[in-house]
Write a structure and sequence with these properties.
8-stranded parallel β-sheet, TIM Barrel, alpha/beta, 232 residues, binds pyridoxal-5'-phosphate
């Protein structure tokens, strides 16, 4: 794996997309998605300058969290079971995947017990795909208002996973819609864009992008991570 080279190319692409959109690349947070990536490769990424990691399973996150330096920033990006909440609250700096009221309540309670406020993004299923979690765009306003009353939570913004498309240009309307929604609700953080579509997401206002394959793919082998993406 050539993480340094991958990271260099990713940074160039982020800068170019930010430039096209007249944005400051410094405003864009790169979350390195480390699901299925072994700890040694994560350490290599950290040595290359990666500081923010994203995991989508509580068990895998906890294992890696205990093995890696404590100065790293962790984001939780997957469907979170309520019975795992206590274990991860206080260890992650942002949860991207608040997708239901029962989870909001459990997160609120666990955060209050721990004496902290947990930062969250509300996950929106913009394209209405059955296999994906997230609120429908029409539900977001009420949900954000209600969740805003829970003192253990700070709703910072919205997150979406766009449908997989061969041509990333086709995902543009999804990103545009999420941005509009966030603007209307005066929410600043917009987590959108993955390896296949992050440039379009950046042009549409993403300020958090979540990249796995683009950073951790192996160049000389057929890419299992890519197969995973296509089956989504
Ligand atoms: C796996 C995953 C990513 C990263 O996907 P890549 O296409 O490998 O960049 C981003 N967001 C979520 C929620 C994921 O589960």
């Amino acid at each position: 794996m050539d993480i340094l080279e991958n990271l260099g190319q990713v940074r160039e692409r982020i800068y170019a997309a930010a430039h096209r959109a007249g944005r400051n690349p410094g405003d864009i947070k790169l979350v390195a998605v480390t699901k299925t990536v072994p700890v040694d490769a994560i350490k290599e990424a950290v040595a290359c300058g990666i500081t923010c990691l994203g995991e989508n399973r509580a068990q895998e996150f906890l294992g890696k969290y205990s093995l890696l330096p404590s100065n790293l920033e962790w984001h939780f990006i997957g469907r979170l079971q309520t019975n795992k909440v206590k274990k991860i609250v206080g260890k992650v700096s942002l949860i991207h995947s608040l997708d239901r009221w029962s989870l909001a309540r459990v997160l609120h309670r666990a955060s209050c017990e721990a004496g902290i406020v947990t930062r969250v993004l509300v996950q929106v299923n913009v394209a209405g795909e059955e296999a994906k979690s997230g609120l429908s765009p029409a539900e977001v306003k009420d949900f954000v208002e209600e969740a805003g009353r829970l003192t253990g939570l700070h709703v910072c913004g919205l997150m979406t996973i766009a449908p997989w498309c061969e041509d990333p240009e086709q995902t543009r309307p999804v990103f545009r819609q999420l941005r509009k929604l966030a603007l209307r609700l005066k929410l600043e953080s917009l987590s959108m864009g993955m390896s296949g579509d992050f440039e379009v997401a950046l042009e549409e206002g993403a300020n958090i992008i979540r990249l796995g394959t683009a950073l951790f793919r192996q160049r000389n082998l057929s890419s299992p991570a890519h197969d995973r993406v296509c089956k989504r």
